[in-house]
Amino acid sequence: MTKNRITINTIASILVVSILVLANSKLVQAEKMETVEILNLTVEPASINVGDTFSINGLIMNNSNNTVSVHNGCAGPFSVTFDDHASVTMEKVCNWMPIQIILKPGDSREVTTSLGSNLAYNADSSGIVNGNVTVSYDVINELNSDLSNMDNTISKSISFTINDKNNQANGEHTTILSPLKQFKSGINAKNIQCNEGLELVIKTHNSSPACVKPTTVEKLVSLGWIKSPESNVSEEESSTKDITLKDSGKSITFKTGQSFLLKLGEDFDWNVQVDNQDVVSRALNIMVIRGAQGVYEAHGHATLTAVGDPPCLHSDPPCKIHSTIFTLDIEVT
């Protein structure tokens, strides 16, 4: 009887030790796992008046050693609450499939609440607004699903001011466009204007500009997301190239993500087609000068074709002037 009791106690002790070891291994794994971060939160436009709608932009960074799946529903990946002066309302019915956001270790993604969201952020009254931005995500361990960590959240605060436009003094306020809109309009990346309190930086992967808080510059450089402020950006990399009728039939090489302005003139009515719009596509919501057919972004090889009809071809009776064809072979390095 005594021998059986010793055996039972021994087995029980082994089970307890095994459970403690397993729990400790998971605890160590959790302690080693760094968190997902929300960086560089800003509002757009930078100057918000009562009655305006606005968006919140930021960067989601995966600092863990595992793949992260960010929850992205109809409201977008950001969940935002405000203490006063601003409200969140439903802007439209959700009838689209949100794009899944998967971040590999070390990856980051720029996010704005104005894209892929059915919500509107409204400036209701003047004053200082304190907001809280939350991101939900799953940490996926591809080697051991037992170590995956689901339904995590991380939050970051943001503070900004809503102005009473009726009490603004000294005339009109000049709104600075976002860095991307300035860049796509043809402004050299080194000449982009940032709002007060933000610093101009150049992204590493496509040499496009961004405006960030000075306190985040050193961290973004160390993560390889932006170039060092001391590094030089070539004129070719930092500008939007003009493509004109003189380039018809040519093969043009661009950097990945570089944009170009298609400027074929206004003597013809142009119909522009790209054989692979997944790699070369027109940038939306960008105003261009007269005689231009849009700003395009290049990410891979494609052929752009434009057919220009003389305006008189559509008159009654139509003229006998022939249409013209423009072709451009696009290579990306």
What can you tell me about this protein's structure?
The chain has 333 residues and is of the alpha+beta class. The protein is 15% helix and 38% strand. The protein has 4 helices and 21 strands. The protein has helices spanning 2-32, 179-184, 214-222, 235-238; strands at residues 36-44, 48-49, 53-62, 67-70, 79-82, 86-90, 101-103, 108-112, 119-123, 127-140, 149-163, 199-202, 209-212, 241-243, 251-254, 259-262, 269-274, 280-282, 294-298, 302-309, 324-332. A hairpin with a 6-residue loop joins strand 12 (199-202) and strand 13. The longest helix is centred in the first third of the chain and has 31 residues, at 2-32. The protein starts with a helix and ends with a strand.
Strand content: 35-45%
**Helix and strand sequence:** HEEEEEEEEEEEHEEHHEEEEEEEE
What does the largest sheet look like?
Answer: 6 strands, mixed
Average residue pLDDT: 77
Radius of gyration in whole Å, from Cα? Answer: 27 Å
Shape: globular
Number of helices: 4
Which structural class is indicated by helix and strand composition? alpha+beta
How many E-type strands? 21
Helix content: 10-25%
Low-pLDDT stretches are 19-33
Straight-line distance between termini: 80 Å
What's the arrangement of secondary structure elements?
Blueprint: H1 2-32, E1 36-44, E2 48-49, E3 53-62, E4 67-70, E5 79-82, E6 86-90, E7 101-103, E8 108-112, E9 119-123, E10 127-140, E11 149-163, H2 179-184, E12 199-202, E13 209-212, H3 214-222, H4 235-238, E14 241-243, E15 251-254, E16 259-262, E17 269-274, E18 280-282, E19 294-298, E20 302-309, E21 324-332
Parallel strand pairs: 2-11, 14-16, 15-21
Antiparallel strand pairs: 1-3, 3-8, 3-9, 4-7, 4-10, 5-10, 6-9, 10-11, 12-13, 16-19, 17-20, 18-19, 20-21
